[in-house]
């Protein structure tokens, strides 16, 4: 059977109460909502990505937050974990439907990464699938070498307008298992893309990323980078589900890595709805305190 897999999922803008309320899911079980979306859309595997300037803890540990939600699911849901420490993957099943959720972290690299609004910071964010306790702000190549093991997958996020090295430094992708070269949340055409201070989210970035990946002979994949549950799977890969080994957490990750490295998958390159993309970005900018066109009036919320 064909398995759909989305290997870059945030789930929400953030798991803090502010984002939950503004995205309409306050006091709801987030794991249940994610699982039901995956069941409905036949998505069999996702990662849940923590992404913060420091090692993810508390509300920023998104996989940990979903584990907490798993204890509150109704009895018709079956929960399985593949490692005793409960830090790698969980499986949610209901009525012959199943979704595998793997822990992941976008690791912020570069000693000046805290200056993330400055183009000269040299910050590059790299996705590590299989854990989310990695130290941040170290050099990109050292981070990759240290975390590239049989039980992890290293993916460069090349298709993004910032912190990808797309303009200055793409040599690191040769050390990655694969790169994201199509992101569903870069939905704008050159004619209608908004000029935000963080960059221009237009589809041309995806095309540039694909060309670079092909030129450097690096495997590239499509992913959603979904910041809303309904956007999970908007871009994804698909492959034979028999290729995934669920006997333990190490074999799960290593079998997924083999699918990528040996190119045993198909890319499915969709895009987010532009109007809805603008809606959730308004919430993001509200939290960041960014007043578009008037940066002097910014005031960041403490989340």
Structure description:
- The protein is an alpha/beta fold.
- It has one domain (2-297): Metal-dependent hydrolases (TIM Barrel, Alpha-Beta Barrel), CATH 3.20.20.140.
- It is 24% helix and 24% strand.
- Strands 1, 2, 3, 4, 5, 6, 7, 8, 11, 12 and 13 form an 11-stranded mixed sheet that branches. A two-stranded antiparallel sheet has the order 9-10.
- A hairpin with a 2-residue loop joins strand 4 (89-94) and strand 5 (97-109).
- It is globular, with a radius of gyration of 18 Å.
- It starts with a strand and ends in a 15-residue tail after the last helix.
- Could you state the oligomeric state of the chains shown? single chain
Number of strands: 13
What is the N-to-C succession of helices and strands? EHHEHEEEEHEEEEHEEHEH
Low-confidence stretches: 290-303
Strand proportion: 15-25%
Per the CATH scheme, the topology name is TIM Barrel
Indicate the mean pLDDT.
Answer: 90
Specify the structural class: alpha/beta
Number of domains in the coordinates? Answer: 1
- What can be said about the biggest beta sheet? 11 strands, mixed
Q: What is the alpha-carbon Rg in Å?
A: 18 Å
Q: Please give the alpha-carbon distance between the first and last residues.
A: 42 Å
- In CATH's first tier, which class applies? Alpha Beta
CATH architecture: Alpha-Beta Barrel
Binned, the helix content reads: 10-25%
**Shape estimate:** globular
Q: What's the tally of helices?
A: 7
The fourth-level CATH homologous superfamily is: Metal-dependent hydrolases
């Amino acid at each position: 059977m064909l398995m759909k897999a989305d290997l870059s999922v945030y789930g929400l803008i953030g798991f803090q109460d502010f984002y939950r309320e503004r995205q309409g899911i306050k006091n709801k079980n987030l794991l249940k909502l994610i699982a039901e979306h995956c069941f409905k859309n036949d998505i069999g595997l996702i990662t849940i990505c923590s992404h913060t300037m420091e090692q993810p803890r508390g509300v920023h540990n998104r996989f940990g937050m979903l584990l907490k939600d798993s204890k509150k699911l109704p009895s018709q849901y079956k929960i399985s974990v593949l490692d005793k420490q409960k830090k790698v993957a969980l499986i949610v099943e209901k009525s012959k439907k199943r979704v595998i959720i793997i822990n992941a972290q976008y690791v912020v690299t570069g000693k000046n990464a805290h200056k993330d609004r400055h183009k000269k910071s040299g910050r590059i964010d790299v996705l590590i699938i299989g854990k989310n306790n990695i130290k941040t702000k170290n050099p990109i190549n050292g981070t990759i070498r240290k975390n590239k093991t049989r039980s992890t997958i290293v993916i460069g996020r090349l298709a993004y307008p910032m912190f990808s090295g797309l303009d200055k430094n793409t040599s690191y992708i040769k050390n990655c298992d694969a790169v994201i070269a199509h992101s569903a949340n870069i939905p704008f055409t050159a004619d209608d893309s908004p000029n935000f201070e963080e960059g221009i989210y237009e589809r041309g970035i995806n095309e540039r990323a694909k060309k670079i990946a092909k030129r450097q002979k690096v495997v590239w994949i499509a992913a959603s980078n979904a910041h809303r549950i309904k956007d999970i799977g908007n871009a994804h890969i698909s492959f034979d589900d028999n290729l995934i080994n669920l006997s333990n957490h190490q074999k799960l990750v290593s079998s997924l890595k083999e699918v990528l490295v040996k190119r045993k998958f198909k890319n499915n390159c969709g895009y987010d709805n532009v109007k809805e993309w603008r809606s959730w970005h308004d919430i993001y900018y509200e939290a960041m305190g960014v007043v578009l066109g008037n940066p002097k009036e910014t005031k960041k919320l403490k989340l």
